[in-house]
Design goal:
Elements lengths: L8 H5 L3 H4 L23 H17 L3 H10 L4 E6 L5 H12 L3 E5 L13 H11 L2 E6 L4 H10 L7 E6 L5 H14 L10 E5 L6 H10 L6 E5 L8 H9 L4 E4 L2 H7 L2 E4 L25 H6 L5 E3 L20 H19 L3 H5 L4
Parallel strand pairs: 1-2, 1-3, 3-4, 5-6, 5-8, 6-7, 8-9
Helix pairs in contact: 3-13, 5-13, 6-7, 8-9, 8-13
The site of phosphoric acid mono(formamide)ester (CP) has 10 residues, from helix 5.
Length: 358
């Protein structure tokens, strides 16, 4: 089995994501990740296992006895939430997931409140957290930082798993897991996810959720991906290169209404102006045709669904919120269950939960 302790950082960082994945496995043969860093670590059997575990956790948690059992499962573990970028959902759903499993948590939500402010390196900060905790859930504006920290920790005297809760403009693997979980649940008893058309709309260039979900969707059969955006914010060539390599059907467009008519799922995203290199640059881009409102709602199939990783601004009108096809609120709650599943599986408690008597 490939191990992060047997490869130098320079060599590891030069590998493709597919080549890196075996180094991040929990143990030989069980298919689960130890460090969760990017979407390329998940294949379809693993996605289905995690969704089944999430369903099991949400069912067990319905009764007081079941909830108390779940709280006992990982009561001996502690997790650190290290978020150096703003977050509501990802932070709180990981926190709630830990609480469901009985995991005690600590947090740093702003590097200015930690000793990084005094000049401590990120490597030393992570080593510090690993002295007190058994897992680090981290969000950072820096692309690739979670990978570097996973390598550092695996080569330290206290290796603990890292979950990437969003890194730069690049990856948001646990968001993609909850998006897939939402799609699977939305199309349950309606023929499933295979053969569907998923339309992405908005800032596809800088939206890390789109990049991770686009990859996870390649695990399903014959799913067509349509990318609808202003040309300045269209999806990047590396995403398209993956789709071409995998023989996935895709289309690039700027016509949201046509996309909505044909779509099974419409995944809206916010303009990510926090990444503007010049302040106000995004505001100069014409985005008015990339908003989902009452007209688009009329065009959407009766069993279609509207998704959004949130937070939103005005790219989905609030008049859509009460429509049964609006899945974005459910998406958020699904995040808590799938993250609980991922954390439990990372610690090796998948079978203990799946096979318990509740
Ligand atoms: N979807 C998402 O990452 O939301 P937050 O930024 O609120 O965590």
């Amino acid at each position: 089995m490939a191990k992060l302790t047997e490869i130098g950082w320079e060599e590891f960082s030069g590998l493709s994501l597919d080549e890196k994945s075996p180094y991040l496995a929990r143990c030989e043969g069980d298919g689960l990740p130890y460090h969760t860093l990017f979407a390329q670590q998940f294949d379809r059997p693993l996605l289905e296992r995690l969704c089944a575990l999430a369903n099991r956790i949400r069912f067990i948690n319905k009764s007081k006895e079941g909830a108390l059992y779940l709280k006992s499962v990982l009561a001996h573990k502690r997790a650190m939430l290290y978020f150096s970028q703003p977050s509501s959902r990802t932070f709180l759903s990981h926190l709630a997931a830990c609480q469901i499993l009985g995991i005690t948590t600590g947090s740093v939500r702003d590097a200015a409140t930690s000793s990084e402010f005094k000049g401590e390196s990120k490597e030393d900060s992570i080593r510090t957290f690993s002295s007190y905790f058994d897992m680090i859930i981290m969000r950072s504006p820096e692309q690739g930082l979670a990978e570097k920290m996973a390598w550092e920790l695996s080569n330290s005297d206290r290796p603990i798993p890292i979950l990437n809760a969003g890194s730069g403009k690049d990856q948001h693997p646990t968001q993609a897991l909850l998006d897939i979980y939402t799609l699977i649940r939305s199309f349950e008893n309606k023929g499933g996810v295979d053969g569907r058309m998923v339309v992405f709309c908005g800032d596809l260039l800088r939206g890390r959720t789109v990049r991770s979900l686009s990859y996870l969707l390649t695990n399903f059969n014959d799913v067509k991906q349509v990318f609808i955006a202003p040309k300045e914010l269209q999806v990047s060539d590396d995403v398209i290169a993956i789709l071409k390599k995998k023989g996935v059907r895709y289309e690039i467009s700027d016509d949201l209404k046509a996309g909505v008519k044909a779509a099974d799922a419409v995944y809206m995203t916010r303009i990510q102006d926090e990444w503007d290199s010049t302040k106000g640059a995004s505001a100069k881009i014409e985005t008015s045709h990339f908003k989902f409102g009452a007209e688009e709602l009329k065009l959407l199939k009766p069993d279609g669904c509207i998704m959004h990783p949130l937070p939103r601004r005005d790219e989905i009108a609030t008049c859509c919120d009460r429509d049964p096809r609006a899945m974005y609120w459910r998406q958020m709650r699904n995040g808590m269950w799938i993250r609980a599943a991922l954390i439990a599986a990372t610690f090796g408690y998948e079978r203990a939960i799946m096979d318990c008597g509740y």
